[in-house]
């Protein structure tokens, strides 16, 4: 097993059956480690960017429940927290799956779970506090699940403002807090939903099926959203979301990723539609905008253009922090593609994995 | 060992022994099954949560036997343990 050294790029891949690591000094020649958590589903895992050393994994077993595991030696030893995340006894709720693990901006660690719930750890994942204002939202009994379940799948801390955060829950919508989670407000304004009479959501209406959100790293006030019924952009202070999917083959898809350095540059992978959640016409394409969604480019060089009928899940598209950026995309049929030139061209990094649930990339030791 | 506690042996399946330093069985003290699981979690942090859910119930697809009696459907606090008992924790056979 090859050592993993400071400065290397590490790609952390969560699959239906375990976690895999791929690492490289030059992003050309890769070595692998794993699988870890054999037989268990890893819906999200990442290298903590705060130290570039700690791996964090949300692991779900249908037998043994859902836990957050961490490793500080790149998988040599995994440690569980002393306690798992717990809903209150009165709620009757029980954590079944972990969908998102996200380091905060103040040494804190957040997880999003199923049924839709949010928990924070202030001790690196040993113990968890329920974010009650979200978890016991007064109208929670009216929340409805999406096809993936009633899940909190996206957590977006605000760099430099530790009490400010957005989260996304399907099929409920986007929630924002500016007081560290003590209170939340819905932010669904003008998101389309053809199943409601007026066709668009009001800002505080429940029922928006957000699939993924990313922040623009150069301007964190701007957030992009891939929704069930469209793709949107919103700047802090805006009263509603603005649709930006013009030029894409479909408004439907799951993942989004932001370029690490270039403002307004975002990636997505549209699927045929909610009636057939596969790459359109059996051809895989990543789409990139470099101007905040005014125009989209179809990126296909090196990606399969024939007989490619798979799905890209909500966390299976990410960038690294290289320059030019590396972009990584995983399929439900177990292929991991990567680009080391901002998405202009692609290579197969790994094949024959289990269905890929999540992909994250980072630099050992930070950058 | 606390006075009045029983000494029991807990047999772990492979999925849990990975988080118990590779041990397949652990000797613990406790008056009830809930005590034994709490002791297991104290020695190997996180293992308790893999056996009991948020509400303190045995997870749905986890089987527990005390000696040869199935007790997984019972409240763990209501399952007494006595000296020399063997607790088996097993994943149920599930799927198709």
If you had to describe this structure to a student in words, what would you say it looks like?
The complex is a heterodimer of chains A (367) and B (96). With 367 residues, chain A is an all-beta fold. Helix content of chain A is 1%, strand content 42%. With 96 residues, chain B is α+β, with helices and mostly antiparallel strands. Chain B contains 3 helices and 5 strands, in the order βαβααβββ. Chain B has helices at 14-17, 33-43, 47-51, and strands at residues 6-11, 25-30, 62-66, 69-70, 86-91. Chain B has a 5-stranded mixed β-sheet with strand order 2-1-5-3-4. The termini of chain B are far apart. Classes of the chains: A mainly beta (367), B alpha+beta (96). The A-B interface holds A 39-40, 61-65, 67, 69, 78-87, 89, 92-95, 126 and B 15-16, 18-19, 41, 45-47, 49-51, 53-56, 59, 61-62, 91-92, 94.
Strand percent estimate of chain B: 25-35%
Q: What is the CA-atom radius of gyration of chain B, in angstroms?
A: 12 Å
Topology of chain B as a string of helices (H) and strands (E): EHEHHEEE
Count of helical regions of chain B:
3
Cα distance spanning the termini of chain B: 44 Å
Derived from helix and strand composition plus strand pairing, the structural class of chain B reads: alpha+beta
Please give the count of helices of chain A. Answer: 1
The succession of helices and strands of chain A, N to C, reads: EEEEEEEEEEEHEEEEEEEEEEEEEEEEE
The helicity of chain A comes to under 10%
Can you count the beta strands of chain A? 28
- Sequence stretches where pLDDT stays below 50 over 5 or more residues of chain B: none
Shape summary of chain A:
globular
Number of strands of chain B: 5
Main beta sheet of chain A: 4 strands, antiparallel
Q: Summed up, what is this model?
A:
The complex is a heterodimer of chains A (367) and B (96). Chain A is mainly beta. Chain A has one helix spanning 132-135, and strands spanning 9-15, 18-24, 31-36, 41-47, 55-61, 65-71, 79-80, 97-103, 109-114, 117-121, 129-130, 151-158, 161-170, 173-177, 185-186, 210-216, 219-227, 230-235, 242-243, 253-258, 266-270, 286-289, 297-299, 317-319, 327-330, 336-339, 347-350, 356-363.
């Amino acid at each position: 097993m090859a050592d993993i050294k400071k400065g290397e790029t590490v790609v952390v891949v969560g699959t239906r059956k375990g976690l895999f690591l791929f690492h490289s000094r030059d992003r050309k020649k890769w070595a692998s480690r794993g699988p870890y958590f054999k037989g268990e589903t890893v819906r999200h895992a990442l290298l903590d960017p705060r130290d570039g050393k700690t791996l964090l994994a949300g692991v779900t077993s249908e037998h043994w429940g859902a836990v957050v595991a961490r490793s500080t030696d790149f998988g040599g030893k995994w440690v569980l927290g002393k306690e798992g995340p717990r809903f209150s006894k009165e709620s009757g709720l029980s954590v079944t799956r972990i969908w998102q693990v996200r380091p905060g901006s103040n040494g804190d660690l957040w997880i999003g779970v199923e049924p839709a719930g949010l928990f924070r750890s202030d001790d690196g994942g040993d113990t968890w506090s329920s974010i009650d204002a979200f978890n016991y939202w007064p109208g929670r009994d009216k929340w409805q699940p999406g096809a993936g379940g009633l899940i909190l799948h996206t957590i977006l801390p605000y760099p430099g403002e530790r009490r400010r955060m957005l989260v996304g829950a399907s099929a409920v919508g986007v929630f924002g807090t500016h007081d560290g989670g003590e209170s939340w407000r819905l932010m669904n304004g003008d998101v389309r939903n053809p199943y409601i009479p007026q066709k668009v959501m009001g800002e505080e209406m429940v029922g928006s099926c957000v699939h993924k959100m990313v922040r623009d790293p150069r301007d964190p006030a701007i957030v992009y959203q891939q929704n069930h019924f469209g793709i949107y952009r919103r700047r802090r202070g805006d009263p509603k979301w603005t649709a930006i999917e013009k030029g894409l083959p479909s408004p439907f898809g799951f993942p989004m990723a932001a370029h690490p350095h270039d403002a307004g540059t975002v990636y997505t992978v549209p699927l045929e539609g909610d009636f057939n959640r596969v790459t359109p016409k059996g051809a895989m394409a990543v789409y990139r905008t470099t101007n905040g969604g005014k125009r989209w480019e179809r990126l296909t060089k090196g990606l399969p253009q024939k007989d490619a009928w798979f799905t890209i899940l909500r966390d299976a598209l990410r960038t690294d922090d290289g320059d030019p950026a590396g972009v990584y995309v995983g399929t439900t049929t177990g292929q991991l593609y990567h680009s080391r030139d901002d998405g202009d061209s692609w290579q197969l990094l790994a094949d024959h994995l289990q269905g890929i649930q999540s992909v994250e990339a980072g630099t050992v030791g930070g950058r | 060992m606390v006075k009045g506690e029983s000494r029991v042996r807990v047999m772990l399946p492979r999925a849990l022994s990975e988080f118990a330093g590779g041990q397949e069985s652990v000797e613990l003290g406790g008056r009830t099954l809930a005590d034994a699981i709490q002791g297991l979690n104290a020695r190997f942090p996180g293992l308790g949560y893999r056996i009991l859910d948020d509400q303190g119930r045995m997870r749905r697809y986890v089987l527990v036997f005390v000696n040869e009696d199935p007790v997984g459907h019972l409240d763990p606090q209501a399952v007494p343990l006595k000296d020399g008992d063997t607790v088996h924790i097993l994943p149920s056979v599930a799927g198709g």
